[in-house]
Request: fold
Amino acid sequence: MTVKQPVAVLGGGSFGTAVASLLAANGYPVMLWMRDAAQAAAIRESGRNPRYLKDLDLGPYVQPTTDLASVLQRCELVFVALPSMALRSVLAPCSGQLAGKMLVSTTKGIEADTFLLMSQILEQVAPQALIGVLSGPNLAREIADRALTATVVASEHEELCSRVQQVLHGDTFRVYASKDRFGVELGGALKNVYAIIAGMAAAMGMGENTKSMLITRALAEMTRFAMKMGANPMTFLGLSGVGDLIATCTSSKSRNYQVGFALGQGVPLEQAVEQLGEVAEGVNTLRVLKQKAADLEVYMPLVNGLHAILFEGYPLQKIIGGLMSGEPKTDIDFISPDGFAE
Ligand SMILES: NC(=O)C1=CN([C@@H]2O[C@H](COP(=O)(O)OP(=O)(O)OC[C@H]3O[C@@H](n4cnc5c(N)ncnc54)[C@H](O)[C@@H]3O)[C@@H](O)[C@H]2O)C=CC1
Ligand SMILES: O=C(CO)COP(=O)(O)O
Reply:
């Protein structure tokens, strides 16, 4: 039997743990890097992550470690499952070791000062690596439960896409390939903001018409923004766009949705984030997206409305009233101004 090459996963949170378990189930030795030595020791001892997806048996193929240098020395394929706030600071110091690697970001966020997506940071930090992203409707809890799931690996490098398909494909996990890294990654980052809104709507007891309106107008808004950024809007019709938007906006397993739900119950933002105790990327994305939309003059009423509620002290009811009484618009206005594809 051929011995399989070890694969690295950076980040010992929910998603790193879920990805590690998929790789291990396919027979790949996994070096799961995390910063917390106690957590690594606990995983080594019990075969389970004591903080995230606690009931998931990781098995002997997952080796937790805090030694990033040795992980990078041994693994050619590296999945990055760090929060967006940490990705640059973790990887920049080891940029010398990243040349020639295949780096795949699973992180769905945007860097605050630069408005860079995570794979764009990877390009800066590791100019001689092959870069890709993995994104789709991929709630970690459901992956851990082996729910049937699909995702997208996107990269200009076909060999990276094939490699990721090879290591992750399994009975319950299907990996589609795309060449549109920017579009795939942008969809994953933007949808988190709308999941917060969807969670708020659910907490307020809003009905299915409302939820459906929110999701489809979110898609319109995301697409309008993406086109202004030069992305291909068709990518948003795929798993990483509308697929992830649906999963995250309809599931109480989404942390962004959970933050929104708490907000809808009247919990202040800081407390909602604190009681979650996990990453909800949408909160920071909202801040930078609102500013970028203003700079680019993109009409994003949902983003502006949520920002006004969370950061400008506007009452929710006033924002809802404003959104509903806005001037009449055409439906698919983001494809062409009169609503019809050209
Ligand atoms: N959980 C999910 O269902 C999915 C998450 N993602 C994305 O994966 C990324 C990571 O999210 P999760 O793993 O879910 O978050 P999490 O909140 O479950 O875990 C975050 C992990 O990062 C670690 N961390 C934080 N700062 C660090 C630093 N400076 N250095 C090293 N480690 C650090 C924390 O200790 C924790 O282990 C996010 O961008 C998220 O959008 C993507 C798809 C699904
Ligand atoms: O991106 C996700 C599912 O695809 C996870 O969403 P949350 O970060 O809101 O949990």
